[in-house]
Amino acid sequence: MSPTDNRLRRPERLAVIGAGYIGLPTAAGFADLGYEVTCAETNPTKLARLAAGQVDLHEPDLEDLVRRGLKTRRLSFVDHAQRAAGDASIVFICVPTPQAEDGSADLTFVESVVADIGPLVRPGTIIVTRSTVPVGTADRLRNIVGRRDVHVASTPEFLREGSAVRDFFHPDRILIGASEPVVRRRLGELYDVFGVPVIVTDIATSELTKHAANAFLATRLSFVNAMANICEAAGADVHQMMQVVGLDPRIGPKFLAAGPGWGGSCLPKDTRALAYVARQLGEPFTQLESTVRSNEAQFDRVVRRLADHLDGSVQGRRIAVWGLAFKAGTNDLRDSPSLEVCKRLVAAGADVTAFDPAVGAAAVSQLGFAYAETSIGACFGVDALVVLTEWPEFAATDPSLVAAAMSGDVVFDTRNVLDINEWTSAGLRLVTVGRSSPDPLNSSASANAA
Ligand code: UDX
User: Fold this and answer.
1) Residue 334 CB neighbours (<10 A)
2) 6-201 with 202-450: one CATH topology?
3) How far is the CA of 218 from the centre of ligand 1 (A)?
């Protein structure tokens, strides 16, 4: 998993401020590579759990990595940024950057950390933003620090939730935004071990590139979802279509799955942020604004299509929902498409019972719908089932158990993960996103086989 052959103690001492989805894999990852890393976390409960090697994020291999770091004593946790940064030569800022309604970033956490540590860090220290921040942030931080002997730089993370540890050790590329040659060299050495392209740019380019990458991915998904909607109207199949489209090496096969709309902690936030920044810079990004709007429309469309299959309305209907996390492999509910759909269903008067293999009842207690402890448990007596997250166990479920539990027969697979023929054969009416149903090729094949 990690390049464990090279764990010599290394000269730079690192501080990571914030033990969240970005900070914790960064801290534990660098400790595994041989660096002394001190990670600051202000939440006392979380801090105590981390110090005991307990990780609450649903992130494969992260807990093992943290435990290994604690065992080798290269990784330690403290309660304040100042305690982490005092001895460090490089400080990674990984605290949240919440977003206002208009897309502007609230940099309060980032700025207050930098104000706290600025006066006490050692000369030559590099303060690096790793959280996604709007272009121009490094300049603001440099002014806050107000010291010529302290450097500011940007190395945005590209980690995906659910594979953050893997992505840390096997990144596609490393981006370093820095102006001084010495900073470029030191950060370059830090990332050299990964053996992937390291692109060094000015800071503004680095800050903006992270937004560009995520906005591009979001736009790609909105395009696929729009094609799925057209396929539904035309009786075509978006899955087969994207297989062909993705075989063009200029496009590539990944990130082409149609769904209920995209979500998560980065794509929605970064698209809105870039649209906001573009307007501020006098260069409105109307195409991106339309990408954001079309995603909202995709959530509405899920509810509308479900209603169409329930005689025009979901009011008073009992609906089972499978999947609450924004994608499989995580328990993160931030900007989850599933929650967007659930909210709309509840607002339209539906009686919703949800199940998710990684999200517990406590996390959804305030959201206005019921929670079931099992996938089949969610289906008892319901008029319809909606699959909103692509957990593999949903595709592996025996459809006859679902059919026996449900009162109705509508199954809306918004992730296109259920086998059309199997689920249809169980007597269920399978609704998909942009797929011809059932697949004519597979049907004739099974007919011939029979
Ligand atoms: C994203 C970026 O991929 C990552 O590089 C960045 O560092 C952080 O933001 P993440 O938020 O973990 O990562 O999720 P990602 O895997 O990109 O998925 C985002 C959303 O797109 C999810 O809702 C997912 O379900 C959806 N998606 C993804 C699709 O609908 N179809 C696809 O083909 C791929």
Assistant:
1) 16
2) yes
3) 8
